[in-house]
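In the previous chapter we treated chains in isolation. Here, by contrast, the input contains two separate entities that must be folded as one system, with a combined length of 609 residues.
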Amino acid sequence: MKSLIALMVILPILCGLLLNLLHKKDRTIKILALTVAIILPIIPLIASYGAYYFGGYPPIAENPTIAEYLPAYITRSYLVKFHPAITYIFNSAQRIFIFILGIVAFLAIFTSLNEVKKPSGVYSFLMFMATAAVTAIVLADDIFNLYVFFEIAAISQAGIILSSNIKGSYKMALRYLFLGGVAAPMLLLGVALLLGAIGNVNISDMIFAMRNGLIDQGNPIFLTAAGLIIFGWLYGSGLPPFHTIKSGLYSKALPHAASLIQAFSVFTLVALGIIILRLFYYIPVVRWAIIIFSIAGMALGISMAIMQTDFKRLIGFLAVGELGYIGIGLGLGTTMSITAGLFQAVNEALVTACLFLGFGTILYQTGISEIDKLGGLLKYRPGVAGLMILAGFIMAGIPPFNVFQSKLMLIESAISAGFPELAIIMILLSIVTFMTFMKAYYSIYLKPEPRGLEVKAERIPSSTIFSMIILLVICTILGILPQLATSQFGSIIHGLL
Amino acid sequence: MTLYDAIIEKVREIEKKTRMEARVTNISVSAVLTAELTIVSTILLVILMIRKLDVYIMVLFLLLVGFMLFSMTPIAVILRREQTDSFYKMIFYVILTFGVLITLLYWGNINV
């Protein structure tokens, strides 16, 4: 069943390519896209743990047939442990990340297909392509392969925004690509420096070489490489200085696309963050940099969110701000903090997707995103308003939901690590997150309806409500049984520390 | 003039300068005040974390940033003005951050 590891990436790529070719064949596109979208979260559940070697070339140490014909100076050296093939690693942590990504992708694609009578093959292609790219980023143990998929994910996300047909989406997508033109080459340069210093692009091999004294860890080239890779990480995840463009990107996407793109940001942050920790854990300044950028993301994202008058931008900034919690968990670098950070990532992907879909229902009803022009929507669809407030409570960290569990773990781990200031910052920003959400909720649902506001409550697609309910149910289950997620991270943390 | 009046006046002044069309309402002023307090508190708490490196550097930073905050208040409005969709501002901060990140990492050396 190890071939299923590769299938997690290959299947959405193949499906995307087929959908592109089938453009205008509406029924076929819907059936194919929906079928593959349903399969996406199932594959990680049935795939076996382990490594998948593209081309079928495992390390020589695992292949005695080849080792038999090689000279002794090779079979007795470290070379036998090195990975000659592009390698994907699939363990319990990857399983839960890809499962959650698959769920969000399925709900986004399902909502997208139900919203339109004539689905666009090209649009679906971009959603599948980006999903495949982020799945590959989560699985890749080869840093150059990771970079390639990092670029594919960025271009696909810009493509999704370009296809959204929202005013200003072209400008925003192009700005994102231009900024990517600065950040992504820096990531590649960091990869190149590592390749130059170590002579290998396999991450496990690099760590093996660094920890076993095959290279000088004190070489300043590693500091520069760390800085360059962190810079690429900031771009991929949307932490400062890329928080403005990332929140802008969310605001110019259709609600289902925004829910998917934010999940891409979350899992890119986690995957690349773990790689940075694996490679540079021994350099304390790297962990400091992760913490400082995460705090900046939280403070700037959440304080900008509360000042917004457009709810699309408000939720965009909130989504960026909440990413900081994950970064703090990784930056603290303890077993508990990393577990909490990874758990927060899973929770954030779910609840933010729900909020993007929920805020989308207001657009369906009124076509307006400016908070000042809205009001009194509670009486039209009280059920949807109820789901929205539930999602807001979850994001702010109200018990007994999943985000409460992960934020509590993060606060405890910050205190245990000797950083009570960080715990206070996280509590303070959770309160401001709650205030921000309540400000928007009051203005949209509770304050008197402005004169002349046209509301068409029947326009909300049932697929959106279905998707919101599914996401909220998963959030509640993870809140009551957090060990379902937290017990999965042991393997990845064991390899880190 | 109370501090609240001073902040409203400053908000109006900056909005006039930047030609923002949004009305100044109770909610918008409360939002700016909340953002202001959040940012100031976060900055001060982050400075306290510097004690892990050196207490004297922390005190120096506290005095420096305290003076800056005092002279620049309200900082939230300035931050909002800087964090627009202007491509020039975005690229400026991207390059600035890149420079600071690489300099600090290289200067910090592996033992810090």
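DSSP finds five helices and no strands in chain B. The radius of gyration of chain B is 17 Å. Compare these points with the single-chain example from earlier in the chapter.
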